[in-house]
Amino acid sequence: MVNQLARLTEISVTLNSTLEIKPLLQFIVQTATQVLDCEEASIMLYDEQRGELLFTASSNSTEELAQIPVPLEGSIAGTIFRENRAIFIADVEKDPRHFAQVGEQINFRPKTLLGVPMLMRDKVTGVLEGLNKRNGAFTQKDAYLLSIIASQAAVALNNARLHTEIQNAYDELSRVDKIKSDFMAIASHELRTPLGVILGYATFLKEDAQGELSSHADMVLTSALKLRSLVEEMTNMNLLRVGTVDLQKSPSIIQQIIARAYEEISSTAKAKGQTVAVDLPKQPLRVLVDPAKIERVFSNLLNNAVRFTPNGGKISIKTFVKNNEAWTQINDTGIGIPTAELKKIFQEFYQVEDHMTRRFGGMGLGLAIAKGIVDTHEGRIWAESEGVRMGSTFYVVLPVATQ
Ligand code: ADP
Fold this sequence. Notes:
Strand order of the largest sheet: 3-2-1-6-5-4
Number of helices: 9
Number of domains: 3
Bound molecules: adenosine-5'-diphosphate
Largest sheet: 6 strands, antiparallel
CATH architecture of the largest domain: 2-Layer Sandwich
Structural class: alpha+beta
Strand content: 15-25%
């Protein structure tokens, strides 16, 4: 008995560590023949769609079986399945419920049989059978051992199935993700040339035109420039995704980078009546970064702070050193971010407000680009907010330059 317990534990470990269905099925039937000391063991799994059992594995055939259907009525396995109990049979071929087709197909003549239901959380998921005990008849102890193997097998098969489903879902997700980035790459590339032509001619037109025509040309130019910055955003995102972004790192003074980013938004903030408080260290603080890329990070964050803060709101920028890293904190008194969205906003194309009802414009790429850039610098970026209408704080942590 102690030996058998050890064997059962061993079986359980193997069952739990095998995630591929085919080897798992073979292991179960081989183990059942060894433990019961019989000639053959087989598995029939219930197929929900067909409402039938399918003969799925046999210890005498390592080939993939053609999944022979076994009816629920008029078969021994069907009886075990429906009545959810072990069945002993002394002479299978004489039993009126015997379903001969399977034996014929795998060239096996059954004589004695012990079958048990495979249970998963009280639900019968299939039937495990041992056939032709080598010495004497199947016993109650055999039924007990086979039931233990059957339940463990049911759980292991379910895990393997879930694992396959997750793997398939993941593969599908990767495929869709690739389509998306290919689309972004193609679209941003193909838009660039015609956009260049529009920008060029609109510029000529603006220079030559007078009166009303000049203001029309101006509108074309402004819109084309806006379109170009959207295309650039898509291109940047794509470069970050494929990891081909070229970093020109050098010890750079963070105060200067922030000042340049601030320049970009100061007039819009002013127009909205917002105050921007800037609190930077007195001594130049050098960070080891690509300054143009990091300027982009700060300008995206500041741009958002201005856009998502109502007129008259407050924005603050604060930089300090903590644990030998340069921390920058950009805080606003704007619309805030629900807790559940704090991580998601860094995903590509993610916007808290629905695309269709948006009041704020944008493509949902600004933070994804910021995160991509910070990540390639081995820095950290995250958002904090007390919730809706409670304002937001974005943190960027960058490595301090050592020399
Ligand atoms: P977009 O340019 O479309 O705004 P971003 O990637 O810059 O894209 O931002 C993603 C989303 O994160 C925004 O649409 C908004 O819902 C939220 N968000 C970003 N910054 C702020 C902020 N300062 N306050 C409130 N919500 C913000």
